[in-house]
């Protein structure tokens, strides 16, 4: 839930700053700034909240802390990639693949009612988390992967 708040708040703030400055608003660029903030927040959280995140992985997996730290680094790399025009499309494609790849950990955590990130609510949490995951994937697609239909391709 916190990542969604970071995403939406950063997007709103980016749009507001553009409007206050009387500049044209590029919603895709504001969306990428918001994605960058969200992934940075999530990535740093993997280091601050590693103990809770490890619980979201099945105990039979080896190197659970290392997986958490590694995925945190990946998310921080996405945060940078969304701000670098030359890596934008690749970052978006990889971020979508990543969001799909990590979703089973949310299923595991919800089914096992892991008390972290809303998963303590049990499988009912998936009624929120699943649409949110689809929303995030769509946000990444629209703001960074989808080709712009006009000749003014902008970052």
Features:
single chain; 155 residues; mainly alpha; 6 helices
What does this protein look like?
The chain has 155 residues and is mostly helical. It has one domain. It is 70% helix and 0% strand. It has helices spanning 2-20, 27-48, 50-54, 64-81, 88-111, 126-145. It is globular and about 50 Å long. The mean pLDDT is 92. Keywords: Membrane, Transmembrane, Transmembrane helix. InterPro entries: DoxX. This is DoxX family protein.
Q: What is this structure's SSE topology?
A:
Elements: H1 2-20, H2 27-48, H3 50-54, H4 64-81, H5 88-111, H6 126-145
Distance between the ends = 27 Å
Identify low-pLDDT runs.
none
Structural class of the helices, strands and pairings?
mainly alpha
The proportion of residues in beta strands is under 5%
Global Rg: 16 Å
Question: What order do the SSEs take from the amino end to the carboxyl end, as H and E?
Answer: HHHHHH
- Proportion in helices: 55-70%
Number of structural domains: 1
The oligomeric status of these chains comes to: single chain
Count of separate DSSP helical elements = 6
Quote the average pLDDT.
92
- Record field, number of beta strands: 0
Outline the biggest β-sheet.
none
Keywords: Membrane, Transmembrane, Transmembrane helix
Protein name: DoxX family protein
Membrane topology: Multi-pass membrane protein
Transmembrane segments: 32-51, 63-84, 90-111, 123-142
């Amino acid at each position: 839930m916190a990542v969604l708040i970071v995403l939406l708040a950063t997007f709103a703030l980016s749009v507001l700053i553009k409007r206050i400055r009387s500049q044209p608003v590029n919603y895709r660029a504001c969306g990428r700034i918001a994605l960058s903030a969200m992934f940075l927040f999530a990535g740093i959280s993997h280091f601050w909240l590693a103990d809770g995140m490890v619980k979201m992985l099945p105990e039979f997996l080896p190197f659970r802390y290392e997986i958490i730290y590694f995925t945190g680094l990946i998310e921080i790399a996405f945060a940078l990639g969304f701000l670098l025009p030359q890596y934008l499309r690749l970052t978006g494609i990889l971020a979508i693949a990543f969001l799909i790849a990590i979703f089973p950990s949310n299923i595991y955590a919800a089914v096992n009612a892991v008390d972290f990130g809303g998963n303590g609510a049990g499988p009912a949490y998936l009624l929120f988390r699943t649409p949110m995951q689809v929303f995030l994937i769509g946000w990444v697609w629209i703001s960074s992967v989808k080709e712009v239909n006009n000749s003014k391709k902008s970052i």
